[in-house]
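Data deposition worksheet. Section B asks for the primary sequence of the deposited chain exactly as it was used as input, without tags or linkers unless they were present during the calculation. Section C holds the resulting structure in token form. Section D is free text for depositor observations; keep each observation to a single sentence. Incomplete worksheets are returned to the depositor.
Section A, Depositor: J.P.
Section B:
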Amino acid sequence: MELPGCVRPREVGLNFGLLWDLSATHHIIFSARPAIEGTNQLQGYFGYLRALHLAEPHRKAQQQ
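Section C:
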């Protein structure tokens, strides 16, 4: 709960990210951030993305 008039502590961090392409449609995303100033915490994100590969209809017609 945040009280009115209270100042939030300043936090400064440096973010590192990685995107790993397993295939044309499957990807793993990782991001981590250690705190440089403020609370001494390590924050991170790990995700999986499956992108749909939709062929453009006009390009399919040109290839045939």
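Section D:
Residues 14-53 form one domain.
The mean pLDDT is 77.
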